# Entry
Amino acid sequence: MFPTHAFTKSIFAKHSARPLASLLSRTSIPSVTAIMASQKRKQGTSSVPAGYKEDWSKGAMLRFEDSLPRLPVPTLDETSKRYLKSVKPLLNNVEFDNTQKAVEDFVRSGGQGEELQKRLVARRDDPQHKNWIYEWWNSAAYLSTCIARIARAMS
# Structure
């Protein structure tokens, strides 16, 4: 149950001499990053896994970001199987058979898929990109999709 109005008033009346805002303005609250860094200095030892580098300037959550392995590129075969599995419930048998043939042409040796797969792997290995799919994912999953949904909902 929520406290009654009279109860709340009595609590605030007892503590009205020192309002919460004045207490907070005089108190400095250290950040989580500062606390963790001071504890690490006190311990004198590092619990950082081998191969990882800490960058505390990025904050506690992202301090190992530069040490993380690169996001893998799924194989062409794996991607084609996932694609077929995802479209199967949406298509009738004839449409699915046509889609399956198109996918087989796409993934065959020397086909378009092989060239595009090489380009994805090259993008993953490019030091200019930390995550090969980042820009595309943000655009497709968050920006363009939302706009299309809004446009469809309004029509």
